[in-house]
Amino acid sequence: MSAASPTARRGIATRAVLYAILGLFAIVYLMPLYVMLTTSFKTLEEIHQGNMLALPGQWTLDPWREAWGSACIGLECNGVHGYFFNSIKIVVPAVLISGLLGAFNGYVLTKWKFRGHKIVFGLMLFSCFIPFQIILLPMARVLGILHLANSTAGLVLVHIVYGIGFTTLFFRNFYASFPDELVRAAQLDGAGFFTIFFRILLPASVPIIVVTIIWQFTNVWNDFLFGVSFASGDSAPITVALNNLVNSSTGVKAYNVNMAAAMVAAVPTLIVYILAGKYFLRGLMSGSVKG
Amino acid sequence: MSNASPERDGGARERLQRWLPKLVLSPSCVLVLFFVYGFIAWTSYISFSDSGMMPDYTWVGLHQWSRLWTSWTWGIALHNIWVFGLLYIVSCIVLGLILAILLDQRIRAEGVLRTIYLYPMALSFIVTGTAWQWFLNPGLGLEKTMHDLGWQSFSFNWLIDSNMAIYTVVIAAVWQATGFVMAMFLAGLRGIDGEMIKAAQIDGAPAWKIYARIIIPQLRPVFLSAVVVLAHLAIKSFDLIVAMTGGGPGNATAVPATFMYSYAFSRNEMGIAAASAVFMLAVIAALIIPYLYSELREPRS
C-alpha cells in the first residue's frame, strides 16, 4: 500500500473515474426530484427571478398548504386532499382483495393441479400484459350498467380484475417451490383444503405477501388510465387530480403549487420504496423475468 | 337424512374437498374470462361495426379499419411510437448495461447508488411528467438556468417544438426505466459462472475483451427480457405523454394510446377507437405470447 507501484496507481485512478461516473449518474437521477422538492418550497417571485437549481432563499410552506387544501382543480378550490383520500379508498380494498384472490389461485394452481391448470394460468398471465385500451370501451359501459361509473367502488373493481394476473403470478411462482411433501403429509393427517392453506402455506408466505402488496399498491396508486377513463370529478384518484391541476390552461401557472401537489402524489410510493426497496425490486423482476 | 351413514357423509365431504380447489379458483376465472377475454371479443367486434357515439352492432367489415389507416393522426401516432419505442429501448438497454457493469466492480456504496437509480420506477408517470415538464420548461427551467450560469446561447425548447417534443418524452421515459433495466442486468451479471472469466484473466485478456467476448454474450436472456418488457411498456405508454405534452403541440406527440383515448372519449368514434385498440393488442400479443411461452415451458434439466 505504501509503495504505490505504477499499476496500483493506475488502479486508483481507474476507480476514481469509476466513482466519478457513478456519482454523476446519481446526480442526474436525483436532479428532477431535487428540483421538484426545492421548487415546492419557493415563492413564485423567487421562481421567476431565481435559479431553478438554487435552494430556496426564503423557505415557505404556502405552496404545500395551497396544494393540499385550496388549489383549484376544475371548478372546485379544495386542493388535492380529497383526491388523495380517494386514492387511499381505492388502493386499500383493491390491494387486499386482489392479493387474497391471487394467493388462493397460486395455491390451487400449484398444489391442487387439475387438467388444464396451465391454460388457466396462461390466460391469467396474459391479462397482465394486455394494453388496457382494449377494455376501456366495454368497461365504461359495464360500470355504467352496474351504477359504478364515476365512483371509487368502480375503480376498486377495475383494479381487482386487472390485478389478479400479477398477484396470481407472484403466488404461483412462490408456491411452486414450496415442498409438495409438506402438503401431502398434512393431507394424510386429514387436513383439508383451507386448513393446509391457512396453517401451512400462509405462515410461510410473508415475503411474497410483502412483494404483492407493494407491487399492487404502487401500481394502483400510480394508475392514471383507469382513473381518467372511469372516474372524473369528485371520485378521481390523486394522479388524475394532479394532471388536471398542472395541465389546466386557466390562470397563472403556480409552479410551486404544482410541484407540491406532485410531491403529495409521490410521497406514499416513495416511502414504500425507501422502506422496502428490496421487495419492490423483487416484484419488478418477477413481473418481467421468470420468478 | 339425519342419520346418514358415516360412509355417505365421508363421501360427500370428499366430493366437496375434490371440488373445493376449483370452486375457489372459479371467481377469478369468471372475472378474467368476462372482463379480459369477453371484453377483447366485444372490442374486436366493435372494430368491425358501425359504432360511433353509441355501440351499433351493424357489421360494416373493414370500414373502421380503413378509416383508421387513412387517418392522418394515426399515421403520426404510428411514426411516433416507432421513434419513441426504438430510442427508448436502445437507450435504456445501453445505459442500463453500462450502469450495471460499472456497479458490478465491487463498488462500496452500491446499495445507495442502486436505490438512487431505481427510485423513479416507484413514481407515477404523472409525477415524473410534471417534474420533467417543469425541468425542461423553456422560460424558467434548464434553459434559464444555463443562461444564468453564463451560457447565453444555450437553447432548449424541445418541449414546445413539434419536431422535437417526442424526444423530451424519450428523455423522461429513459430516466424512469433505466434503473430497472440496470437491476435486470445486475442480476444477470451476478449469475454468471466465474470459471471462464477467471481462465481468461489468467490468460491475460484485458477487461473489455472479457466483457465483449464472455460476459455480454452470456447475458442474452436478459437482453431478451429487457427488450420484451420495454417494448410492451413503450406501446402502452400513455400517462407520461399526457402529463408532459398532452399529445401536443398539436398532434406532434400523439401515440396509439393517446389516439385511442381521444377517439373513444372526446371524439366519440368508438369504431375507430376499437380498431386502434385491437391493433395495439395484436402487436403486444405478437411480442408477449412467444415470450411467455418460452418462459413458462417446463425447465430443461
UniProtKB/TrEMBL annotation, chain A:
It is found in: Cell membrane. Residues 84-276 form the ABC transmembrane type-1 domain. InterPro entries: MetI-like (IPR000515), MetI-like_sf (IPR035906). The chain crosses the membrane at residues 12-35, 90-108, 120-140, 152-175, 196-217, 259-281. GO terms for biological process: transmembrane transport. Keywords: Membrane, Transmembrane, Transmembrane helix, Transport. It is a multi-pass membrane protein. GO terms for cellular component: plasma membrane. The keyword Cytoplasm does not apply. Belongs to the binding-protein-dependent transport system permease family. This is Carbohydrate ABC transporter permease. It comes from Salinicola corii.
TrEMBL record, chain B:
Residues 78-293 form the ABC transmembrane type-1 domain. Keywords: Cell membrane, Membrane, Transmembrane, Transmembrane helix, Transport. It comes from Salinicola corii. InterPro entries: ABC_transporter_permease (IPR051393), MetI-like (IPR000515), MetI-like_sf (IPR035906). The lineage of its organism: Bacteria, Pseudomonadati, Pseudomonadota, Gammaproteobacteria, Oceanospirillales. GO terms for biological process: transmembrane transport. Gene3D superfamilies: MetI-like. It is found in: Cell membrane. Coiled coil: none annotated. The chain crosses the membrane at residues 23-45, 81-103, 115-135, 164-189, 210-235, 270-293. One of its GO terms (cellular component) is plasma membrane. It is a multi-pass membrane protein. Belongs to the binding-protein-dependent transport system permease family. It comes from the Bacteria. This is Sugar ABC transporter permease.
